[in-house]
Amino acid sequence: AMTSIGDLPEDVLVELLSLLPARELLRTCRLVCSQWRYVVDLNTLWKRKCQRDGFYRQSYDRSISDWKIFYMLCHMKKNLLKNPRAEENFQHWTLDANEGDKWKIEDLPGAHGSHMSDPRVHKYFVTSYGPCFKSQLITLDKEGYWNQLMDEIRPEITVKDWYAARFDCGCRYELTVRLLSKDYIVLEEFHPEPVVIEQWSDAQWREISHTFQNYPAGVRYIWFQHGGHDTQYWAGWYGVRVTNSSITIGPPT
């Protein structure tokens, strides 16, 4: 007769333990005994958790070798940029350049503007006739991405930003994203050519996206900067509009 939970068949123990939060599995259950440590380390347990939490696709079966890392990356995935939609004024942003009539926050769609397809976005940051740039520095270990993970797994880092012009004024948009070492040395950079939108455009919101893959080991920080100015040099806030920026880290595809 079965006398303890330790007498359960392995597949039943996997099913039971997969119901627990990952934090409890790694910090508590794994320390109970050698059998539980073995089960917690099984790929099948973490694959089951992926199935339970909606991270699993049958097409992943041949490409994923470590389901625990895959699960952790899916579970931790979030926007690492804070206040991306101008809902907290300029909190969390560093204003690197604030010329002309300076940065301003406006409500969508704004004068001579257009709505976004994402109903969660209600505000945007807008530039003036002088250079306006703002940035954030993300410290990866503070966000839960430990050094060994970044050096050995090198999960994908995806950057997205949305920008738009007014219908009645041209503007210039720029984006720079850098992967930095612990000493703030640039290991990899995404800095596309500036986008110039001519006067009398459609004023539609456009997305720019880039995914860092197979970058060098040693990434400890991500630096994000965007901004620009108008091209007519009109007093006020006729420059490029930006909002809904994001940086996410996910499993390699």
Automatic annotation (TrEMBL):
InterPro entries, per the entry: F-box-assoc_dom, F-box-like_dom_sf, F-box_dom, F-box_only, Galactose-bd-like_sf
GO cellular component: cytoplasm; SCF ubiquitin ligase complex
Pfam families assigned to the protein according to its UniProt record, in alphabetical order: F-box-like, FBA
Domain FBA per the UniProt entry, residue ranges: 70-251
F-box domain mapped to chain residues: 2-49
GO biological process: ERAD pathway; glycoprotein catabolic process; SCF-dependent proteasomal ubiquitin-dependent protein catabolic process
SUPFAM superfamilies (UniProt xref): F-box domain (SSF81383), Galactose-binding domain-like (SSF49785)
Keywords tagged on the record: Ubl conjugation pathway
Keyword presence, Transport: no
Top-level division of the source organism's lineage: Eukaryota
One GO MF term: ubiquitin protein ligase activity
PANTHER family, per database record: F-BOX ONLY PROTEIN 6, F-BOX ONLY PROTEIN 6-LIKE PROTEIN
Record protein name field: FBX6 protein
Organism per entry: Cardinalis cardinalis (Northern cardinal)
Encoding gene per record: Fbxo6
